[in-house]
Amino acid sequence: MSSHVERTAENFRQKFSEAEVISISDASESVKLLTLKVTANDFTFKAGQWVDFVVPGVERVGGFSMYTSPDQLTENGTLGLAVKKSEHQPAMWVHTKCSVGSKVSLRVGGDQLLYDPQPDSPSWNLLLIAGGIGINPIFSVLNRVCGFHRQCKNVNGVYKPGVTELLYSASVPNELIFRESISEMVKQHPNEISSKYFITRGKDGSIQELKKTENVIERRISEDDLRSSITRLNNNSLLCMVCGPPPMIDSFEEILQKQGIPKDNILTEKWW
Hints:
Blueprint lengths: L3 H4 L9 E10 L4 E8 L11 E5 L7 E4 L4 H7 L1 E7 L4 H8 L6 E7 L15 E7 L3 H20 L9 E7 L8 H10 L4 E7 L5 H7 L4 E2 L5 H11 L4 E7 L1 H13 L7 E5 L2
Parallel strand pairs: 7-8, 7-11, 8-9, 9-10, 11-12
Antiparallel strand pairs: 1-2, 1-6, 2-5, 3-4, 3-6
InterPro entries: FAD-bd_FR_type (IPR017927), FNR_nucleotide-bd (IPR039261), Oxidoreductase_NAD-binding (IPR052128), OxRdtase_FAD/NAD-bd (IPR001433), Riboflavin_synthase-like_b-brl (IPR017938)
GO cellular component, one term: mitochondrion
GO molecular function, one term: oxidoreductase activity
């Protein structure tokens, strides 16, 4: 399998910046959350982008998407990464050796899935689709959307988002990382944001418990789901963002185009 650097060789990249791990926690049995403090004042990123992640002594370069909003970086100089456990050297380092105080190098890249509207940009409706750890850039976008909604209430001349719908698929309920935060966003903005969760393999009592409070479906995201979302959101003013395994993205791109979404309005990020 090709490396992250090889797969993204043609993508835009900034210069490297140093960062320090200031917190590490478990999002699930297979995902670690890192909060990093960046030392460079000129370090920036846009919602949906990723970083090259370089660890001293580890030959391979990792590629992890930010899950936090650029607003957080502006406010306190930190960003968040969610790293799924794998045999990939940088991911393994995060899960076995990383600790508070660890130093890493970061370089922002990615120009395929970006959410950076300007004050005079159209108020696009958003259909956000995430599979597994593909939630990372999608959650960053969702955080940015919520930031705009909050600012609109207090500041004139701020971008006003349209309606946002999230379709989020995971194998089991515990792998729906950020679910509680997403649910809180929906509660705070019930007319602007909605979510629907899909569980593909889990068949235990936790699903029934989750169904008491969330919109949960026990299957994969289907073509009918996409069609229904497009109808609700109006495909004439709709921007679609999809992140997950390559086969899922290839399939959904084809379906979305078949439903009348222009190719330029479908932004994707494939993760292996």
